[in-house]
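Hey,
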Amino acid sequence: MKDELRIAIIVPVSIYEPKEIIVESAKHLTSLNFENFKKRILYVFDGDENDERIKELKRFGVEVLSRNTNRGKRAGAINDGLEYLKSFKPDFVAIFDIDSRPSQDFIHEAISNFKRGIYIVSARRYIYNVNNLISKVIDIEYRLINFFLKISEFKQFNGLIGVLDANLLYRYRLNEDILTEDADYATRMYCLGYKATLCKGKIFEQSPKNWKDFLNQRIRWYFGGLQLWKYSKDVLKSGRVKFISSWISALTLTYFPIIFLPIVLLSLPSLLIYRKLKGFEIYFGFIFYVLILQTAMILALKNFLIGKKVEWKAMKRL
């Protein structure tokens, strides 16, 4: 591998993130294996330079960009970070959230999997705060998502968490006018003939800590998915049959989770074997999970049809 490869790491930070989790992020990301790479780690804050959390970050030798705005939310922060790092001329850009905890060799594993036609390489995602019912249910959900990511032609990594081809990212940037900039960018890349792939390693992250945060998160995800239908003609024109079918499936089947409720109701024996007596807790948690998802879809659809914007709400971390 060439010694001159350059990688930029961008971590967007909202004004709501607690200092403790920001410090843990810096500790973890600076400890990753960057051997043979030139790196720059940039945290992009929505707040101003007087933010006390910035002083804590600088102790770890990372860079901080205070953009004094929340324009474009997460997409805007990443785009501003790209502009800040433009003179560095990175070959690759890694994007992480403040709660992302990639495995130590993730950067090397990801870059070694790049080849012509790949726009992003990521790894399977797991929950590291499995400590209550909602997080236990989402932990199982993530394991199912990991399975579908392996077999699906359209691989969409939430948050664009992973390592991306810098040239493509600088050329096309993120869409700041859509709620789910990650799915938007993925759709555009696939329509252009590129694709995503998985590598070895794991990326751990936090689950929502309560049902309210989970509901708000999924309303935003469903609303963003509805915005993606504007690309339907481009998707069909791509002529990539497997991509077309998996993209349409992602934007239809997932919008009716209630149809999977019978499967959940019949899953009690397997859950009892997997979790013993705790299977009862998971069982009823999954029933509630399906109902919450369906509620989120209905609320997102209602807002979409009447032209009402969905607010990006803070999620409890600690």
